[in-house]
Write a structure and sequence with these properties.
single chain; about 525 residues; alpha+beta; 8-stranded mixed β-sheet; DUF4403 family protein; DUF4403
């Protein structure tokens, strides 16, 4: 006898069957076999050699002639004076020939690598004294001859004893400098001076006294003494060497480029800068400035952790031919394959092939890793394959190995894979699903060939900014000094790898200039 079926009973039974069916499918999915594929044998590579790149940082330091003028203005005495010898002792006795002079504003000009400072001089030559007895008698005899003896006797003896006369000193002083740098870290100014005085004179007791003849030797000596002091100070002053030593110590450092903050997702990278040679070109002088070209040659490399380089200061400064301002830094960027695997997995994990869902099987990447062997890289992908031809949706997991060769894409600043192909050991990976699963492999290979890209643009952009800031910091902006540093291009120059590390050679180009508008007193 057939029992009547209540609609509620029918609905409940149907629900139980459907839930059981879904649970069964999920259980089959979870318990689906994981295909074990033997990993291709990797050829062990020799370690990469230590390959720090040679980098050059050259700055043009422009010292305004106005700054040199102002420093000379503060350092040079404004007044000076002295005593001259008596040139007419047979006429003047107890003579006092003194002079005082003051200088005017200093003017600075430059041309053909010669710096010229000029200043006008104005002053007074004063002569006091008395005529000698012989000179007085000669005057009385002259009056007797002129007026007659009786008249002379009536007049009596002429008493001309005291003499007080003045004359103007007027001229200019010209100082020229042809500065040179020495290998011993000293500046040789090579100073020369010329004193020019106007042809003025005074007459006393009938004797003409030339102002230039009396004063010029003493002004020459005063100027020569000042030159000697300046040259000795520059020759013995270690300030130039000490400043260079300070900048050298600042350049010897490990500079954070990226990944050192607590919230960043980029791998840590540091630029190690190790100066090995100090270079400079001889100074140039033009109409507006004195130009010093100085720099360092350094070994540079990128590391994943901060380092403490050792950079002994050179005893000698290398004098080189004139060169332009430049920031040419070579960066060997060493990425461990652990870091590289993280970058690759971030791009592939969760992707399903074919991406348009057109195939009978969906292949989804669950994890990815990368290793090196010979001249190729091996990408290992743990994938889950699921068939779509039936209601059952059977699936399996397998590790698929794919070969590819790394290639740098200069225009896009990326690292790509070429010659992508499935490793022969992976042919059995989809044996459970057969030809349907293999149909997804070409899609996966094409995607890896087209889209597996390690984007170096974030690093390149960040490196440009950080390197420029670090270079500018070598000459910190202070009062009277302005530094402009710019890294205007960065390019990928080469690639190499061993079993643990992939190295990308990055080169930067830029400029650095410094303008000095104020100096201490000379």
């Amino acid at each position: 006898m057939r029992l009547p079926m209540h609609p509620r009973t029918i609905a409940l039974g149907t629900a139980v069957v459907l839930v059981s069916f879904v649970i069964s499918l999920k259980a089959m999915d979870w318990l689906a076999p994981s295909v074990t594929v033997q990993k291709p044998k990797l050829a062990e590579l020799p370690p990469l050699p230590q390959a720090p790149r040679s980098s050059t940082i050259v700055a043009q330091v422009s010292v305004a002639l106005s700054a040199i003028r102002d420093a000379a203005e503060r350092g040079a005495p404004k007044t000076f004076g002295g005593k001259a010898d008596n040139p007419v002792q047979q006429i003047l006795q107890n003579a006092d020939i003194g002079w005082t002079a003051s200088r005017g504003p200093i003017a600075a000009t430059g041309a053909q690598d010669v710096l010229t400072l000029t200043t006008p001089i104005n002053g007074t030559l004063k002569v006091t004294g008395a005529l000698s007895a012989k000179a007085t008698g000669a005057v009385n005899d002259a009056l007797g001859s002129l007026l007659g003896g009786n008249v002379a006797k009536q007049i009596g003896a002429v008493n001309i004893k005291n003499i007080n006369a003045n004359a103007e000193i007027k001229g200019n002083v010209t100082l020229t400098a042809r500065p040179k740098l020495g290998a011993s870290w000293r500046i040789e100014p090579n100073l020369q001076a010329q004193v020019n005085l106007g042809d003025t004179s005074l007459s006393t007791a009938g004797v003409r006294i030339s102002v230039p003849a009396q004063v010029k030797p003493f002004i020459d000596k005063a100027v020569a003494d000042q030159i000697s002091v300046v040259e000795a100070r520059l020759h013995n002053d270690p300030v130039f060497q000490n400043n260079a030593r300070t900048q050298w110590a600042k350049a010897c450092r490990s500079i954070p480029l990226q990944g050192t903050g607590g919230t960043t997702s980029m791998p840590p990278m540091w630029l190690e800068l190790r100066p090995i040679r100090a270079i400079a070109a001889q100074p140039k002088v033009d109409a507006s400035s004195l130009i010093l070209t100085m720099g360092i040659e350094a070994e540079t490399r990128i590391t994943e952790a901060q380092t403490t380089p050792n950079c002994p200061f050179p005893e000698k400064l290398s004098i080189v031919p004139p060169m332009p301002s430049q920031v040419a830094i070579g960066l060997p960027v060493d990425l461990s394959f652990t870091t590289l695997s993280q970058l690759v997995e971030a791009q592939l994990k969760g992707k399903t092939f074919p991406e348009d869902g057109s195939g009978p099987v969906d292949v989804t990447v669950k994890s990815a890793s990368i290793a090196a062997s010979g001249d190729r890289l091996l990408i290992s992908l743990l994938v889950h394959a699921k068939e779509k031809a039936s209601w059952f949706g059977l699936g399996a997991e397998a590790t698929v190995h794919i070969w590819g060769r790394p290639r740098l894409d200069q225009p896009s600043q990326t690292l790509r894979l070429t010659d992508v192909e499935l490793a022969v050991e992976s042919e059995a990976a989809f044996g459970l699903l057969g030809a349907a699963a293999r149909a997804a492999i070409p899609h996966m290979q094409q995607t890896l060939n087209d889209r597996l890209v390690v984007d170096l643009k974030p690093f390149a952009t960040n490196a440009q900014r950080k390197v420029a800031a670090a270079i500018a910091d070598l000459q910190k902006n202070e009062e009277g000094i302005r530094v402009d540093a710019e890294v205007n291009s960065i390019r990928l120059a080469g690639i190499d790898f061993d079993s643990k590390t992939l190295r990308v050679i990055v080169e930067t180009d830029g400029t650095i200039k410094a303008a000095v508008t104020a100096l201490p007193a000379l």
